[in-house]
C-alpha cells in the first residue's frame, strides 16, 4: 500500500473532524429539541470551548438556546475564569455561576481540613444548582478517552433523583436513538464530544482557530516536583518541607481546581505544536496532570456515582 501524501492526510484528518463535528451538532440540537430546561456546562476550558464552537454552528452566533453554567470552586486559575467571562460576554449568552463557597456557608459542604481540595465537592453545588433551576439536562465536555470511568458512560447519561449515575442501569444507544424519558426529579448529563480524543480536540482547535486561555500554551511558572508531577507554586499549593522551587517552561493539558491540577513541561506555543506533542504522549491528560486522580478513595467512578460531572 502506498503511503498517503500530505494533501491526502490533510483531507483524511478534515473528514474525521467533520464527522465528529456533525455528531456533536446533532446531539446539541437533540438536547434543545427534547428537553425543557437544559444548560451547557462551561468552565472556559478547551473542551467546553470546542462544544461552544459546535453550538455556534448548530444554532448560529448569539442564538444559543440554553444558558451556560459554571460550578466555581473559588480556587480556579484566574486566566481561565477571566476568559470564561469574556467569552460569554462576546457571545451575549447567559452565564450562571454557582460557588462551592456558598455551599460551604450553607453547611451543605464541609471540608475535612482547610487545605482540602474543593474539587470533589463541586457535586453538591452542582446538584443544588440543578434543583434551583430545575435543569433536566446538563451538557458536559467529558470525553471517553480521559479516564476509564468516563469510558463506561453513555452520551445521554441518565441520573436518578439523587443525581447519581448507575453504570449497570444505563440505557442502550443504538443507531443514534436515545431514550430520554425522565421521572420527576431525574435528569440527564449529555456528553456530545464523548467520541473525541485529546488529539481530535487540538486538531479541531487548530482548524477552527479557537481562542483559549493563555495557560494552555507554554509559559514560565514556578513549580515543585511531587509524586511524579509538576505542582504549581501558589498560595494554595506552597512547597512542602525541603521541596525545591524551580522555574520551568510549562503548559496545562487540562484546567481545573488549582489544588489538584498540574502543568506539564512544554515549549508548545501553538495548537499545531500541541498536536505534535499529543501524538507523542503516552499518558492521558488526567493521568499526567491531576493529583486528585492518584488516590482510589477519590476515584472518578465513585465521584460520578455521587453526582460529579
Based on the model shown, name its key terms.
single chain; 309 residues; alpha/beta; Rossmann fold; 2 domains; six-stranded mixed β-sheet; four-stranded antiparallel β-sheet; 10 helices; globular
Notes on the protein architecture:
The chain is an alpha/beta fold and 309 residues long. It folds into two domains: 204 residues, Rossmann fold (3-Layer(aba) Sandwich); 81 residues, no CATH class. Helices cover 36% and strands 15% of the residues. The protein has ten helices and ten strands. It has a six-stranded mixed β-sheet, sandwiched between helices. Strands 8-7-9-10 form a four-stranded antiparallel β-sheet, with no helix packed on it.
Order of helices and strands: HEHEHEHHEHEEHEEEEHHH
Largest sheet: 6 strands, mixed
Count of β-strands:
10
Oligomer: single chain
**Share in β-strands:** 5-15%
CATH homologous superfamily of the largest domain - what is it?
HUPs
What share of residues is helical? 25-40%
Radius of gyration: 19 Å
> CA-to-CA gap between the ends?
44 Å
Please state the average pLDDT score: 86
Judged by helices, strands and strand pairing, the structural class is alpha/beta
> Which fold name is given in CATH as the topology of the largest domain?
Rossmann fold
CATH architecture of the largest domain: 3-Layer(aba) Sandwich
Count of alpha and pi helical runs: 10
Amino acid at each position: 500500500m502506498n503511503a498517503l501524501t500530505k494533501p491526502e492526510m490533510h483531507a483524511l484528518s478534515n473528514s474525521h473532524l467533520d464527522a465528529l463535528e456533525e455528531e456533536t451538532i446533532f446531539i446539541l440540537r437533540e438536547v434543545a429539541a427534547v428537553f425543557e430546561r437544559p444548560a451547557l456546562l462551561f468552565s472556559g476550558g478547551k473542551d467546553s470551548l470546542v462544544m461552544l464552537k459546535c453550538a455556534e454552528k448548530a444554532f448560529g452566533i448569539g442564538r444559543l438556546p440554553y444558558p451556560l453554567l459554571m460550578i466555581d470552586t473559588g480556587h480556579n486559575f484566574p486566566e481561565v475564569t477571566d476568559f470564561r467571562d469574556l467569552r460569554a460576554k462576546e457571545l451575549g449568552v447567559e452565564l450562571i455561576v454557582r460557588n462551592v463557597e456558598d455551599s460551604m456557608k450553607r453547611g451543605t459542604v464541609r471540608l475535612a481540613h482547610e487545605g482540602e481540595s474543593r474539587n470533589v465537592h463541586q457535586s453538591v453545588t452542582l446538584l443544588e444548582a440543578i434543583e434551583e433551576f430545575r435543569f433536566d439536562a446538563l451538557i458536559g465536555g467529558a470525553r471517553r478517552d480521559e479516564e476509564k470511568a468516563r469510558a463506561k458512560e453513555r452520551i445521554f447519561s441518565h441520573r436518578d433523583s439523587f443525581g447519581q449515575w448507575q453504570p449497570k442501569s444505563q440505557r442502550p444507544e443504538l443507531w443514534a436513538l436515545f431514550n430520554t424519558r425522565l421521572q420527576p426529579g431525574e435528569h440527564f448529563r449529555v456528553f456530545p464530544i464523548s467520541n473525541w480524543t485529546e488529539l481530535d480536540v487540538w486538531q479541531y482547535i487548530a482548524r477552527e482557530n479557537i481562542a483559549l486561555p493563555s495557560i494552555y500554551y507554554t509559559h514560565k511558572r514556578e513549580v515543585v516536583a511531587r509524586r511524579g508531577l509538576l505542582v504549581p507554586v501558589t498560595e494554595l499549593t506552597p512547597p512542602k518541607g525541603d521541596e525545591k522551587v524551580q522555574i520551568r517552561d510549562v503548559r496545562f493539558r487540562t484546567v481545573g481546581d488549582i489544588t489538584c491540577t498540574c502543568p506539564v513541561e512544554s515549549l508548545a506555543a501553538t495548537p499545531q505544536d500541541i498536536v505534535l506533542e499529543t501524538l507523542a504522549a503516552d499518558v492521558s491528560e488526567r493521568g499526567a496532570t491531576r493529583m486528585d486522580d492518584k488516590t482510589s478513595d477519590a476515584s472518578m467512578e465513585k465521584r460520578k456515582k455521587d453526582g460529579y460531572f
